Amino acid sequence: xxxxxxxxxxxxxxxxxxxxxxxxxxxxxxxxxxxxxxxxxxxxxxxxxxxxxxxxxxxxxxxxxxxxxxxxxxxxxxxxxxxxxxxxxxxxxxxxxxxxxxxxxxxxxxxxxxxxxxxxxxxxxxxxxxxxxxxxxxxxxxxxxxxxxxxxxxxxxxxxxxxxxxxxxxxxxxxxxxxxxxxxxxxxxxxxxxxxxxxxxxxxxxxxxxxxxxxxxxxxxxxxxxxxxxxxxxxxxxxxxxxxxxxxxxxxxxxxxxxxxxxxxxxxxxxxxxxxxxxxxxxxxxxxxxxxxxxxxxxxxxxxxxxxxxxxxxxxxxxxxxxxxxx
Amino acid sequence: xxxxxxxxxxxxxxxxxxxxxxxxxxxxxxxxxxxxxxxxxxxxxxxxxxxxxxxxxxxxxxxxxxxxxxxxxxxxxxxxxxxxxxxxxxxxxxxxxxxxxxxxxxxxxxxxxxxxxxxxxxxxxxxxxxxxxxxxxxxxxxxxxxxxxxxxxxxxxxxxxxxxxxxxxxxxxxxxxxxxxxxxxxxxxxxxxxxxxxxxxxxxxxxxxxxxxxxxxxxxxxxxxxxxxxxxxxxxxxxxxxxxxxxxxxxxxxxxxxxxxxxxxxxxxxxxxxxxxxxxxxxxxxxxxxxxxxxxxxxxxxxxxxxxxxxxxxxxxxxxxxxxxxx
Lengths: 327, 327
What we know:
2 copies of one chain form a homodimer.
Chain A: H1 9-16, H2 21-26, H3 28-41, E1 46-48, H4 55-59, E2 64-67, E3 71-74, H5 80-84, H6 91-94, H7 96-108, E4 114-120, H8 122-131, H9 139-147, H10 149-173, E5 177-182, H11 193-211, E6 217-221, H12 228-234, E7 239-241, H13 248-254, E8 260-265, H14 267-272, H15 274-288, E9 293-297, H16 307-318
Parallel strand pairs in A: 1-4, 4-5, 5-6, 6-7, 7-8, 8-9
Antiparallel strand pairs in A: 2-3
Helix pairs in contact in A: 1-3, 3-7, 7-10, 8-9, 8-10, 9-10, 10-11, 13-15, 15-16
């Protein structure tokens, strides 16, 4: 999950120096500062580059902007002609500031702190591009897929390749682990799951691994329930993030035999703090620390989170005897 | 799922006769008309009473209103004192128009058409009451639960009992099957699932069955993924609705040995129509028609649905040789 954010006063100060959110992402010195701020405060085992998943649609030629307090907006992609106009030729140049930030962050990190790069998965990016912003049920994107099946497949393939290239570039700039956020995978009907999530993800992972065979990719098909099992078995990913709705006991039994499991503290427990926070941390680690496991949240840190609660969780996890946090 | 709705022109006409949505629900002649409209058009096996899940919070004394196009609004329940003020004493009187509509609809239905009553599940109602309306992630309701655990348990218990009484009253008025909509169960963190969903549901089901032991209750814990299994094993429900994100093959294997499974056509396929609709109908019935099964959608009919597509699905399901739709 993103480590930087409005819950940190120093982040809010840095944010004010950028004219808008995308300017923040594309200005290396600001992105570097936001990436490193959580590491100055907390004893973290990894850093995640400060960026946004919507830089890829923008690199392909779509208009993207952020409304203060209203989330992302895009010019909606409304028919097959819009898909044909997507142009990956400018991707490397457009995203050069992200790679520059990664290079400089990597140079400043002290091993064994690991640098994580990331991108949005094809379906989640396609959903934003078609809807023109966030949506409760992504009905417009689902209807587009049924109305223009060929164009939709083209869109997913185009995104799979562009996202793979963006991830490869991040590895070449210094990212050591990659995360793939399929934040709205839970909105995909079961009947479409293979074509809409599994296939594009498998294509993307194969393309990354063809160039960077050893880099671990952690997938996050948020909210897909039992289909998490198919996802870890069929996409080629090395690790999986689980949302806070998924039982860690189920994940330990069904997913952990195949991949590393990352998760899944409820971010609202991080707001609440105290005993309810400690109990939730303990319950998750008891279920998952017997196998390959990365302690994390089940979703992003919310703005009202007291930073002290983050420090409390990290100290608690690092103090646990039953797993070695640096291995 | 609700059968009436804006996709039917006759519904939109009836809707205009009510001054607002709740007036529509509480005026028996209008609710009866909306309930019967889909049965005049389509060869349906059941009718579902036209009402809304938020009539129960209103019956307990909370303010509820609907903003045209903006969904439901409630005065937010913000602290334990608000929970203490909930008053179930007026429930029977407040909801009398719903029961009157059920009595009259039942008298007009020709067997074997079945009349279904329904209510919202405790967590889903609590979530609306605390947030004061709909929410993307129900963060406010989740934080309330962690901040005021005793008051939150009281709230769930109060709702479980009030909802049970509302369902019993519906049976006594003529409802033959009951549905329990836990539409936002997918937002409950796994660590809280037993206390927030399973326990209140079990309490409610036991209370209904103490008075009406033979009435089937179909639960719909939308979006809970693998936890559907615990739900069907531990709540005492007789049937379960599955959302379109859940694989029917998984449901056939894991859920159908315990309960009747209802679902789970993607409502957007009903908009698209044609071959993609037929294929999805066939795929679901092939997975589930080998056991106790009710064909249905995975979520509500959307307003842009052509009524002809609904007729097409019903004809297709009724024409299938491998299950007897009247049994």
